[in-house]
């Protein structure tokens, strides 16, 4: 039995609330159970210097966890002088995931920055951030389209992410913290709406996992991301 009493293939309750930040071109408050992430998409008129003259824009992301997003207060990374290795890894993952479904030529030589701030953490913050970031990005691109700022269709597909793991010998979907901290295997999957794999991260804690177990986690991930994409579609209707 899972600590949350969910079935092995059951997601936590997921909600996607749009337009929660007054000044951002796109925003979404995403909740995966007790994990809550505020995603805001901001348009910058200038892209990175290394893309100047190419006609292409850029989509990037920043990730942060508020001090009391966790049980005990964590120090703000700005006071430490630089983001941690974990933070850098996650924000690069979010950026890669979003760029996988964007035509960067269509946005011109501009940059969209998606900020993902964890308000409350209970496992799966990076997967919730990617799922909510797509909604914020969608609304930013819609804002741009309404002002004739796009050279053509910019958003090529949906993208969502989910965690899976092996807990007490059973493959399970969407780990919360209680499962994540005790799982024998923990994996994150980033999947597009058409089923393409953007990124797979898998780690064994204790014994190595088998190819069959990896495939069972992939099947769960496809089930979960299909449901998340359906929620994205309903959110942006």
TrEMBL record:
Domain (Exoribonuclease phosphorolytic): residue spans on this chain: 10-140, 159-222
One Pfam family of this chain: RNase_PH
Chain positions recorded as phosphate binding sites: 86, 124-126
Name the record gives this protein: Ribonuclease PH
Stored CDD domains: RNase_PH_bact
Domain of life of the organism encoding this protein: Bacteria
The family this protein is said to belong to: Belongs to the RNase PH family.
Alphabetical list of InterPro entries matching this protein: ExoRNase_PH_dom1, ExoRNase_PH_dom2, ExoRNase_PH_dom2_sf, PNPase/RNase_PH_dom_sf, Ribosomal_Su5_D2-typ_SF, RNase_PH, RNase_PH_bac-type, RNase_PH_CS
PANTHER family membership: EXOSOME COMPLEX COMPONENT (PTHR11953), EXOSOME COMPLEX COMPONENT RRP41 (PTHR11953:SF0)
Physiological role: Phosphorolytic 3'-5' exoribonuclease that plays an important role in tRNA 3'-end maturation. Removes nucleotide residues following the 3'-CCA terminus of tRNAs; can also add nucleotides to the ends of RNA molecules by using nucleoside diphosphates as substrates, but this may not be physiologically important. Probably plays a role in initiation of 16S rRNA degradation (leading to ribosome degradation) during starvation.
